Amino acid sequence: MEVKAKKALGQHFLTDLPTAEHIAETISAKELSQVCGPEKGILLGNLPVVEIGPGMGVLTDFLIAAGRDVTAIEIDHESVEYLGKFKKSINVIEGDFLRLDLNEIYPGDFVLIGNYPYNISSQIFFKALEYKDKIPVIAGMLQKEVAERICSGPGSKVYGILSVLLQAWYDCEYLFTVEPGVFSPPPKVRSGVLRLTRNSRIDLGVDEKKFKTVVKTAFGQRRKTLRNSLAGMIPAGSPLLEDPILKERPERLSVEQFIYLAKALN
Fold first, then answer.
1. Distance between CA 171 and CA 95 in Å, rounded?
2. Burial class, 52, CB count within 10 angstroms (exposed 0-12 / middle 13-18 / buried 19+)
3. DSSP 81
4. Domain boundary among 166, 198, 230
5. What single string gives the DSSP state of each residue in 181-233?
6. Digit-coded pLDDT (tens) for 37-65
């Protein structure tokens, strides 16, 4: 039984076994121990795994082989039938990840991984961010440009909304690049594998909605200085108007500086 990749779902099935194994290893206890420390790494390396868009389960096989408890979320009914027939040791949920209540999948913490559909990868990460307190690790493969954007720092041309919002809560690593030839059908772009591990921040010190609004408003006009892009949010006579930070453009600001701005505007 073969599953046909569907263009409407942005499907590109990974076929290269070494690449799949390498991606699975990014959430192993051994790998995470090097990033988070031995005790925390072992804990994270044994958490249940939610895999998004497993397709025919090439990555899934390596997660199973590593002894992980895997729940696969798949929107394609043909893939769901295939997984139900050939990957009986996993739990398969047929549905749209963007519409699911993740608290109903696991009451506790879990690791998120996948060969994420390119057309909704940013939305997937925004969704995961809503559950940041129960997803200590996010890893997987997506379009190289998006992976680089997530992991980029201040001063980079690709640094943006997704970078700041994710880096407020996660340490982001770009791990390696994957060429189009390891997929069927091959995508027209290169892919990148990343790993996000939850940092020690438990509170921003300011309303999260306010923080998101400031970040999105600033990058909404990224060529303008913050004085201009945030003009509608700064009250007349505010001491912030004298702050040199308003002379900067958004791509120059660190996460901490955006938090400072959100507090000042609150």
1. 29
2. buried
3. H
4. 198
5. GGEESPPSS-EEEEEEEE-S----SS-HHHHHHHHHHHHHTTTS-HHHHTGGG
6. 999 999 999 999 999 999 999 999 999 99
Q: Is cis: bond before 38, omega within 30 of 0?
A: no
- One-character DSSP codes across 31-67: HHHHHH-HHHHHHHTTS-EEEE--TTTHHHHHHHHTT
Residues 69 and 111 in one domain: yes
Closest CA to 61 of 33, 88, 31, 101: 88
- pLDDT band at residue 11, thresholds of 50, 70 and 90? confident
Give 160-187 pLDDT, tens digit per residue: 999 999 999 999 999 999 999 999 889 9
Range of the domain at 92: 7-198
Which DSSP state fits 8? G
Q: Which residues contact 85 (CB under 8 A, 6 or more apart)?
A: 1
